[in-house]
Amino acid sequence: MTYILDLPAHQDNALPNVVSAIMVVQSHCNFQPSVLALLAQQHVREVIIVNASAFALCAANLAEFARAHPKCHVVPCAANAGLVAAYNQGIQYATCQFLLFVAQGCILPLQTVSKMLLTGAYKPGPWMVSVGNKDMKPTAEVSLLGGGRHVPFVCPQCFLVPTKVFLALDGFDPHCFHSTFHLDLSMRVHLAGGGVYAINEMQESDAKPKSLREKWQALKGWVHYYRKYLGNQTKIARWFQFTADLVKHSFR
User: Fold this and answer.
1) pTM of the model
2) Between β-strands 98-102 and 158-162, what pairing exists: parallel, antiparallel or unpaired?
3) Is 135 part of a structural domain of the chain?
4) Four-residue CA torsion sign, 218, 222, 223, 225
5) d(CA 164, CA 170)
6) Residue 11 half-sphere exposure, CB side, CA atoms within 13 Å?
7) SS (H, E, C) 205-243
8) How many domains, in total, are found in the chain?
9) In this predicted model, what pLDDT tens digit does every residue of 157-194 receive, in sequence order?
10) Range of 237's domain?
């Protein structure tokens, strides 16, 4: 398998279907609007749906949906395994030159993937591109082919990365969980001399409330992230560890 893509022209119609979209379903909430929006995107060859839900009805609905949509592939995963573990499971089935990670409940407008692909495809070095986010502070447009805005990190709801870059960086750190996996990967792209960009396109999102398990995993993700980049002896890392230990003891 090769992940090298020859882009002979700087035009959208010169790009083949080269994107594997990966979405994790963690609840019995309606997943169809998000997946249908992905199927409507140009350049998306396949949609890999990782079923991390504990509901049998959700598995049945996913199987029925996949039968009606040949581009969709359902991958089983342990219930409540966590977002990053589920993403890592889905990545094993990806066959394309670019990986698009999309959160359940995120509905992309038409041509979003095309804009993301054209923004990143001509950038030098490793790169990642995400949709806009209200938490991202506006930055100057990039004076490189493809445009885009420099950002410190991608939006976790939707971002695109070349498969060869993702594999070279060893993929997602499973200890970051859903709270910091995007920060960690963005940091490693920066440290590798690459760039992280965002387009102005905003996505609709129907995020569900976080469960107690997800809140606990989020805290562990932050502890690991600060330990990884700031060291165990920093005050903030010690504070996070103290908080994590406190919460852990409260469950006993």
Assistant:
1) 0.76
2) antiparallel
3) yes
4) positive
5) 10
6) 4
7) ECCCCCCHHHHHHHHHHHHHHHHHHHCCCCHHHHHHHHH
8) 2
9) 999 999 999 999 988 887 776 677 888 898 889 889 99
10) 212-250
